Amino acid sequence: MKRLLLFLTLTLISLPSFASPRAHTFSIVARDEASGEIGVAVQSHWFSVGSVVTWAEAGVGAVATQSIAEPAYGPLGLTLMRAGKSPAEALSALLSVDAQAHLRQIAMIDARGSVAAHTGEKAIAAAGHLTGEQFSVQANLMRSDAVWPAMAAAFRDTEGDLAERMLAALEAGEDAGGDIRGRQSAALIIVRAESTGKPWADRRFDLRVEDHPQPIAELRRLVRLQRAYNHMNRGDELAGEEKWVEAMEEYRAGAALAPEIDELPYWVAVTLFASGREQEALTLFRDVFARNADWIEVTRRLPASGFLPEDPAQLQKILDQAPPAARPKR
Question: Do residues 204 and 47 touch, judged by C-beta distance below 8 A?
Fold first, then answer.
């Protein structure tokens, strides 16, 4: 552990002064008590704020690093927590070797929900943080000092999963005045309670709005789409186990969340047809083809890749679901 701390210390000390992004912002780190999921959400008048501020690792914790932000606090904080340090210990160790600690604003939460936060005395006003049970909210360069208390209240009072509660916190912060410069980008990361050893599979949400006139509203839209695709992915898993009733429940839930995405029912139809549930599949193909004729040509290409049977008669059953004017000639 001493060697690890020495390495991290030398890493932070070696960083050049004032090379850090000026990611003034408001954010929340939090854990969901029911699921154990942990995450970070943020909005700022700074381009691509998610590439700087938000860090999370399943089974370890989450970090928000902002103000005159030093992104190294993210991976270094996670490394220390992974090694068994509490958020308070990890944050204290990193601040102790940071010559610009007075400019930083950082919050950390671990997989058990313990939190620690720091607002440097030179962070641009209005600046401050507020920690609560399994969350921390923090903000700097705000229009007023009502921002972070409003975020905390919204997180406590909102029903729903972690994504919903963190979005509510961001919306409350914006409604309370938000960033005095305006708004530009937002991000949200949520990871599983425990690591699977596959980081790409541990991210329940990993969404960034890089540049948008209404970044929180756009982030909420993306969360809705991610929920839809999460249902579809779970449906595919259940279909692979031939649990068709459960799979169809997931597929329907996903399609209901994103009715504007015609690709979702299309791949459900492909999965159903390939598994022998032809009538259900043909109904879906008919609806999709009526909405977007390009899927007809996609369908013609699938047998060669193994997604549909290499049987001309079977393929023709599907193509016959296209509107008459759009059907390929036999």
Answer: no
* 49, 42 Cβ separation under 8 angstroms: yes
What does the DSSP assignment read for 15-78?
A: SPTT-S-EE-EEEEEEE-TTT--EEEEEEESSTTTHHHHEEEETTTEEEEEEEE--TTHHHHHH
pTM of the model: 0.90
List Cβ neighbours of 269 (8 Å cut-off, separation of 6 or more). 280, 281, 282, 284, 285, 288
pLDDT for 94 = 95
DSSP H helices in the chain: 2-13, 50-53, 73-82, 87-95, 147-157, 162-175, 199-202, 215-240, 244-257, 263-274, 278-291, 294-301, 312-319
Share of the chain above pLDDT 90, in %: 85
Residue pLDDT, tens place only, 260-288: 999 999 999 999 998 899 999 999 999 99
